[in-house]
Structure formats: C-alpha cells, structure tokens
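Dear support,

Our group has been running a series of protein-ligand predictions, and this particular one with zinc ion is the one our PI (initials K.S.) wants archived with full inputs and outputs. We had some confusion internally about which version of the output was final, so please treat the block below as the authoritative record. The input we submitted was:
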Amino acid sequence: MKVHHLNCGSMRPPLVPGGIVAHCLLIETDDGLVLVDTGFGTHEVNDPSQTIDPLSRKLLRPLLDINETALRQVEKRGFSAGDVRHILLTHLDMDHAGGLRDFPGATVHVLDTELEAAANPRTTKDKMRFPAVQREGVTFRTHHATGEDWFGFEAVRDIPGLPEDILIVPLIGHTRGHSGIAVRSDDGWLLHAGDAYFYRGEVETPPSSIFALKLTVKQTETIRTQRLANVERLKELKASGEVEVFCAHDPVELARLG
Ligand SMILES: [Zn+2]
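Confirmed final output from the archive:
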C-alpha cells in the first residue's frame, strides 16, 4: 500500500525549538483512502474557540493553516473527501480528531475504551481534551483488542472494510483507549505510535527529551505506569529494526519519512 506522511497541524509550543507537528497518514488502498489521525480540521481553522480551549491554545500555539488540514491535502492530491472511506484514530484528543467532521462519509475506528472515556469525561481535563462537538455526526466503529500477536503486541486485526495489513495496536496510557496504528506499506511495517511518546529521543538508548515536552507528556498522560511500560516496549521494537516506529508530534521523524 502507498502511504503518504502528512503534517495536519503545526504547533509552536513555547521552549520547543522547531515546534511540533501532527503526523497523519494517508493510505491508498484498493478500496479507497484511509486516514490515520486527522490533525486539526477546517472547523478549528475557521473557529478555533469552538474546540480548542484557551489553555491549549496558549500551550500548543497551533498555526491553524487551512492548507495543512487533511481535507486540503487530500484534495491537493486529486481526491475528494468522499474518497476517504475509513479513519483510524490513535486517540480522540482534539489535535488528532479535529478533522473528523471534514469527512462525513468515513467510518471512524477507535478502541471502545477511548470513545467511552470521551463520551463520559470523568474530569474537567477530559472534557477539554475531547470536545463533544468534534464528534457530531461522526460514524464510529469501536473495537476491542483480541489478544492476537503482532511483534509481541496485542492487536485488533481484520477490521471490517480494511485490508488485513492495517491493525490497531493498543498502547494505553496517554488516554484510556490510546492506540498505535500499524500499516504494512510498500516499504515495510510502520507503527504510528500516536502520543505514546512526544520526542524521538524517548525511544532511543540512552533516552533523551526536551524539558517542555517532558512536561507536556506528563501533564497529558492518564495512566502513567502503562504509558511508561509501552515506551519501553516501543524502544525494543524500534531497536529490532523490524518496524519503522514514529510518534505523532516529532518533526524530525516526519521529515525522515515524509
Ligand atoms: Zn497529540
């Protein structure tokens, strides 16, 4: 399958040199287009106050450029919104689910625990990070990990409507239903690890990070022990060289793959 790496949401958080991106995938399958995450959409660009709370706007400083939306990038490649049949989400945070309403014909796949957490927010933080309006009119299909094996990870396989080479790989921690999305591209296996980590150095040996991002990771995580355990597993997977592992927000990883 042909996989395009897109940036659907540049952000310029203070004290992060070079800023961060919203790394999304556009996959060409025999049966239409598939998106992995959507970044910020046209609704955020047109009226950011509707879905991005003031604190997040201050901390993330999103650029909100219409040309970075997944919709515009799909159109730029000669396709239309209707060609996007499926969207897989690493999780439902606003900077990953912002573009959902730009693709009303798509089925959106997410873990059951993620949609449940977003629909019934337990904290003010959860209410802010999962604005309900982003999910209005969206067709969801929820999944539960079956325990099948993918390079030692549990995975959701055989997702209806999708090729068998696209899998959901639960990486719980950042949110309750956070997942990676695995795709076997023309060049081998890719794992979009979402917000399991924020900076490439976190999965290198020895690990490294940027102070401001370290703080962001901590402030946004939901189940710390599980997130840290998953970072260790991702480190091993990356070191094995069998899978190209990358996260949602590292611009250097995106430049390497894009
Ligand atoms: Zn994020």
